[in-house]
Amino acid sequence: MPEINVLEAIRQGIDEMMAHDERIFVFGEDVGKRGGVFRVTEGLLAKYGPLRIIDSPLAESVIAGACIGAAMNDTLPIAEIQFADFIAPAFNQIVQEAARIHYRSNGDWSVPMVIRAPYGGGIHGALYHSQSIEAFFAHVPGLKVVTPGTPYDAKGLIKSAISDPNPVLFLEHKKTYRLIKGQVPEEAYQVPIGPADVKRPGEDLSVFAYGLMLHYCLEAAQQLATEGVSIEVVDLRTLRPLDTETILDSVRRTGKALVVHEDNLFGGFGGEVASLIAEHAFEYLDAPVRRLGGPDVPAMPFAKSLEDAFMPSPARIIAALRDLAAY
Question: Mean pLDDT, to the nearest integer, of 75-86?
C-alpha cells in the first residue's frame, strides 16, 4: 500500500467521493485556485470546475448557512472553515439550524453536510490559529464530531462523513497534515463514524486520545514498554457519537485510565470520558481516572516557550502514565 500523509488522505477521500457523486461540492475561503490555505483542495478546481469547487466570501456564517440550504435541496456540500478558530460566526447556523432541522421537522428534512475545520496547536499559530473547539460542538445532539489522527482513518472517515445523512463536523489537526504518514489502500474503503480503535493493546493502563495527542500517547507508550509497563492506547476517532463500549471494555481490563487532549482541561472533552468511566466502570478501577490537558488560559500563546508550556507533550504524558501506573 502507498504511504501518504493525512492531508493527501483527506484530499483523496474528497476527490474519490466527488468523482462518484455529482451532488458533492466544496464551499469555503480560497478553496479554488489556491487549493485552500493548507492546500487540501489543491487540484480539485481544475478537475471539477468552479461550480463544484467554490470560493466563498470571507464570512463563515455564509459558508455554513449556504451549505445548510444546499444540503436541504438534494446536494452534498463540504463546507471548509479555514481555521477552527474562525467557526464562531457560524456557531448559530451549525448548532441552532444544521444540528436541529431533522428533529424539529419530525424527520421530514435532513442536512447531509460536512464542515471541515483545521484545529489545534503546535505550529506557532498563536491566539486565532491554534484553538481546539471539539468540546463546544460535541455537546450538541444532532451533530456528529469526527477527529481522525491517521491517514487511513482520515480518508475513510471523510468518505463516511460525506455519505452521512446528518451534519458532520470533521476536525483535522493541522500539525498532523504533513507530519503523520501511513499506509492507505488504493481500493475503495470507508471507516464507519462511531467506533473507536485500539491502536496499541496493553494490560496495565488505558490511555484515551485523538488527533495529534494520539501520536504523543503512542510515543509515550513505546517508551514505557521499555520500562515494563504495558499501555493500551485507544484512538477515540469520533467524539459524537462516542464509542462507550470500547472505552469501558478497555478500562475494565486494565483498571486504570488517563484521558489526554490539548484543549483546556476545565470543561474539555476528557471530562466526559472520565465521567463515563467513573459512572459505569468504577468497580473495576484500581486508581482514580486522570486527565491531562491544556492549562486554563484563554488561548495558545505565540512564543515557542509558552506554546510548549501549553501543549501536552510526550514527556508530560510519560510522567502522567508513570505516576498512574505506580498508584
Answer: 98
Give the amino acid at 209: A
The dihedrals phi and psi of 307, each to the nearest 5 degrees, come to -65, -45
Position 222 pLDDT exceeds 90: yes
Q: Across the strands, what pairs with 53?
A: 26
Mean predicted lDDT score pLDDT of the chain: 97
CA distance to 110, 147, 153, 190, 260, per residue, from 168 (Å): 12, 11, 15, 15, 23
What proportion of the chain, given as a percentage, has pLDDT over 70?
A: 100
134/147 Cα distance (integer angstroms): 9
C-alpha dist (Å) from residue 74 to 66, 110, 176, 292:
13, 10, 33, 43
**Nearest in space to 153 (alpha carbons), one of 183, 115, 132, 123:** 183
* Most distant CA atoms of the chain, gap in Å: 59
Q: List, for residues 237-280, the tens digit of each pLDDT value.
A: 999 999 999 999 999 999 999 999 999 999 999 999 999 999 99
Domains of the chain (ranges; CATH) run 3-183 (3.40.50.970), 197-325 (3.40.50.920)
* Residues taking part in catalysis: 129
Strand pairing of 231-235 and 197-200?
antiparallel
Q: HEC profile for 113-158?
A: CEEEEEECCCCCCCCCCCCCCHHHHHCCCCCEEECCCCHHHHHHHH
Could you say which DSSP state residue 242 is in?
T
pLDDT of residue 299: 86
DSSP E strand stretches across 210-289: 231-235, 238-240, 257-264
Q: State the burial class of residue 275 (Cβ atoms within 10 Å of its Cβ: 0-12, 13-18, 19+).
A: exposed
Residue 298 CB coordination number (10 Å)? 8
CA distance 186 to 5: 14
